[in-house]
Amino acid sequence: MYEKLTPPTTGDRVTFKNGEPIVPDNPIIPFIRGDGTGVDIWPASQKTIDAAVEAAYGGKRKISWFKIYAGDEACEEYGTYQYLPEDTNKAIAEYGIAIKGPLTTPIGGGIRSLNVALRQIHDLYACVRPCKYYPGTPSPHKHPEQLDVIVYRENTEDIYLGIEWRAGTEICEKLIDILNTQLIPQTPEHGKKQIRMDSGIGIKPISKTNSQRLVRRAIKHALRLPKAKQMVTLVHKGNIMKYTEGAFRDWGYEVATTEFRNECVTERESWILSNKEKNPDLSIEDNARQIDPGYDSLTEEKRAVVCEEVKQVLDSIWETHGDRKWKEKIMVNDRIADSIFQQIQTRPDEYSILATMNLNGDYLSDAAAAIVGGLGMGPGANIGDQCAIFEATHGTAPKHAGLDRINPGSVILSGVMMLEYMGWQEAADLIKKGIGGAISNREVTYDLARLMEPPVEQPLKCSEFADAIIKHFDD
Ligand SMILES: NC(=O)C1=CN([C@@H]2O[C@H](COP(=O)(O)OP(=O)(O)OC[C@H]3O[C@@H](n4cnc5c(N)ncnc54)[C@H](OP(=O)(O)O)[C@@H]3O)[C@@H](O)[C@H]2O)C=CC1
Ligand SMILES: O=C(O)CCC(=O)C(=O)O
Ligand SMILES: [Mg+2]
């Protein structure tokens, strides 16, 4: 049934029930080596994961790796332009959990992203990227240990749907003409705006369904965190993109305040409740004045809206959330996207789960990874209800390819996420311990070596870093 693949002869399939994996002791796990530095990173990662599983379970549990192809390797195996063969998607769908190295996407023309295609084909709607500090890791920040966030990025739509047209093409000009002559004039809020004929056009769809399933998963994740980290921040640029990014925020709050009503409190609700707790006789209007600093300069109509909000919150949740009960709930708030980039630097400890749309999450996960040690330490997972693919936040880092010097830490930590997702916590913990041991012993690759004080003169090779991690399992 595969054109060119032969699955391992030993091992069993991972299956899914209610969106959760059921993992046998000898699962078959497909892997994609990846382009560029994938040639260096993958062997180091596989070796580390296998060593941890062996050390944790002494042969009782073992991964049967199944090599599958995408990117340049797939073209070599399957022929020109066969970047993502059908075999590969079949294997991922059949075996449920996979792990991959980075894949190249050309800028401008050429093929669209294989990484994005894999997420869309397998409906891996949540891209989960924890950005957490490992003690001893050098960082350009003074207090990287204060940042402990998980970027929960919507993974299937937004501009990544890839519906766009090149400037000057017939269809692009036709679309601009329809917009300029028909659709924009029919929408009074757009006034006399016109799109220049020499523009390229991209479509940014943000759906209620995909926004809400992402936020739902983010809130469920928050419920599993320690109390102090039970926060979900909806990140958006809704002041500018009202019906896409603004809608994401509104739909997110809707999930929090309907499906998770008993578990969640929004930031504004917490202000209203807290105002009443401090002063039980506070009038609705004074409460409204306190939550909205510009209240007195609002129009009468807008003041009425804020008062209605206060009244509605007190009527509906005072019993369940008032008298400080809200302090035990998941705090759901929202931040404008540009602001969150400075907030994770200036107030890192105020954030936990950052629920984002696709593009914002892409930017934010690189920025947050840089704070805690760089892209060599940025793991990730793409999770759906029937399948999951683990991969690092970074790309192929082509200038380091084939030199055995890149940091394999991100793919190894993606392996840790995979082991945790499988319920193999003991093996995951060993790798985390090994990484901690290697870093605190200054046994690191070039990227961490150059940031250390004093700098490490002789950085380890990529393969040597894997060996160092394994050696420190026994610390
Ligand atoms: N999921 C995926 O497969 C992704 C694929 N890509 C693709 O990868 C290609 C290259 O993208 P590019 O913009 O260069 O971004 P990359 O993330 O590949 O690399 C940018 C820089 O980040 C640092 N870096 C990246 N990975 C590591 C690592 N493992 N260890 C240490 N440092 C690291 C290096 O900086 P320095 O040299 O300063 O040490 C590197 O030059 C593009 O085709 C892009 O589309 C991009 C992102 C994700
Ligand atoms: O697919 C790509 O080439 C880039 C994807 C990316 O940057 C990401 O997923 O973080
Ligand atoms: Mg990215």
From TrEMBL:
SUPFAM superfamilies: Isocitrate/Isopropylmalate dehydrogenase-like
Start and end residues of each Isopropylmalate dehydrogenase-like domain: 28-469
The keyword Transcription regulation is annotated on this UniProt entry: no
Enzyme category, top tier: oxidoreductase
UniProt xrefs under Pfam families: Iso_dh
Family matches, as Gene3D superfamilies: Isopropylmalate Dehydrogenase (3.40.718.10)
Cofactors demanded by this protein: Mg(2+); Mn(2+)
PANTHER family given in the database record: ISOCITRATE DEHYDROGENASE [NADP]
Subunit: Homodimer.
Record's protein name: Isocitrate dehydrogenase [NADP]
Species of provenance: Laspinema palackyanum D2a
